[in-house]
């Protein structure tokens, strides 16, 4: 029997997303409030004697070669530590793909953690985060998890106190939005309303969910809402269904709303399932690291 490790890879939402400027190297400097939620992919990784990396996934359109972030993550540590064995990986995807929930980054983070355990590499969390940034700007956060302020290009992380109990409804319309397209079409000079990130942090610290939710804002909506009115429509429906407030996560198209009671979110979830069955919808909760 060869050793196997299974792990959940949790998705995230952005409680607030601001873009400060475009750097000379083309990257955007951001200020975002990140929150891990209970929607997850599942990775099963088994050591095999022959020196290959095999990935099997339930989504036929996902790459299973070096273009899959799980492959790159495993290869990174395999090369650095000259690991001769191979890996057989089963990736069960549940986080919507290319949806602004960092599904691929979460998978890559989980793959690094699994490699560390399977081969007793002795890497600390910060050692893993240093390597994670080579795979993508959100991957270090996916190792840290929980509630955090993310700055720089996403790699400068400050942990924040956990969100107190609140209920989050995620609704994902069936459209695809490329992150690259959104950033390329962002016109920072035309944005009049930036999120009050410091105000959100203040509310999180004093456990004022309502205050926090009312301050939620995402500057990337200025690009996506123009091209995809469905995003604004879902936000309005969420609020009409009782959400304190609703915004898009990341570069979209996933929209989420924050609710204060279990009964309110159940009712809203039923509404979306019955009246908009073409959208995916999930009730999730914030989780701690
Ligand atoms: P972010 O919130 O970081 O912008 P995202 O939700 O927009 O992420 P992902 O779901 O991570 O996007 O996927 C973006 C692209 O990355 C997909 O089009 C897909 O082909 C590729 N990809 C590579 N590996 C994975 C993976 N393990 N899971 C999902 N997508 C992956």
Description:
The structure is a single chain. Helix 8 packs across helix 9 (229-240). The strands form two sheets. Strands 1, 2, 3, 4, 5, 6 and 8 form a seven-stranded mixed beta sheet that branches. A four-stranded antiparallel beta sheet has the order 9-10-7-11, sandwiched between helices. A hairpin with a 3-residue loop joins strand 5 (147-152) and strand 6. It has helices at residues 69-80, 103-118, 125-132, 139-144, 179-184, 197-205, 209-215, 221-227, 229-240, 262-275, and strands spanning 4-22, 28-48, 53-57, 86-92, 147-152, 156-159, 167-172, 217-218, 245-248, 255-259, 280-284. The longest helix is centred in the middle third of the chain and has 16 residues, at 103-118. It folds into two domains: 4-159, 2-Layer Sandwich (Ribosomal Protein S5, domain 2); 167-284, 2-Layer Sandwich (Alpha-Beta Plaits), CATH 3.30.70.890. It is 34% helix and 29% strand. With 289 residues, it is α+β, with helices and mostly antiparallel strands. The radius of gyration is 19 Å and the shape is globular. It is an enzyme of class 2 (transferase). The active site is at 12, 138. One of its GO terms (molecular function) is 4-(cytidine 5'-diphospho)-2-C-methyl-D-erythritol kinase activity. It catalyses: 4-CDP-2-C-methyl-D-erythritol + ATP = 4-CDP-2-C-methyl-D-erythritol 2-phosphate + ADP + H(+). Residues 68-146 form the GHMP kinase N-terminal domain.
């Amino acid at each position: 029997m060869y050793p196997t490790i299974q792990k959940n890879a949790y998705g995230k939402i952005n409680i607030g997303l601001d873009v400060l400027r475009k750097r000379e190297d083309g990257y955007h400097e951001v200020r975002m409030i990140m929150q891990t939620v209970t929607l997850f992919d599942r990775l099963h990784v088994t050591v095999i004697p022959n020196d290959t990396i095999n990935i099997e996934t339930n989504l036929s359109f996902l790459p299973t070669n070096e273009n899959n972030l799980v492959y790159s993550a495993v290869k990174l540590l395999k090369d650095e530590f000259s690991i001769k064995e191979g890996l057989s990986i089963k990736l069960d995807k549940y986080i919507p793909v290319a949806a602004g929930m960092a599904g691929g980054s979460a998978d890559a983070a989980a793959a690094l953690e699994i490699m560390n355990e399977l081969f007793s590499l002795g890497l600390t969390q910060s050692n893993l985060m240093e390597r994670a940034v080579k795979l993508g700007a959100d991957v270090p956060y996916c190792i840290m998890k929980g509630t955090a302020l993310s700055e720089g290009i996403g790699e400068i992380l400050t942990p924040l106190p956990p969100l107190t109990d609140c209920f989050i409804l995620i609704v994902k319309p069936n459209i695809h939005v490329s992150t690259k397209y959104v950033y390329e079409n962002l016109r920072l000079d035309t944005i009049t309303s930036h999120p009050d990130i410091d105000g959100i942090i203040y509310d999180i610290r004093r456990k004022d969910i309502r205050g926090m939710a009312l301050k939620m804002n995402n500057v990337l909506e200025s690009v996506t809402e123009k091209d995809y009115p469905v995003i604004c429509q879902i936000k309005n429906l969420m609020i009409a269904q009782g959400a304190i407030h609703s915004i898009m996560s990341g570069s979209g198209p996933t929209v989420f709303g924050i609710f204060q009671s279990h009964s309110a979110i159940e009712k809203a979830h039923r509404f979306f399932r019955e009246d908009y069955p073409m959208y995916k919808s999930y009730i999730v909760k914030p989780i701690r690291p």
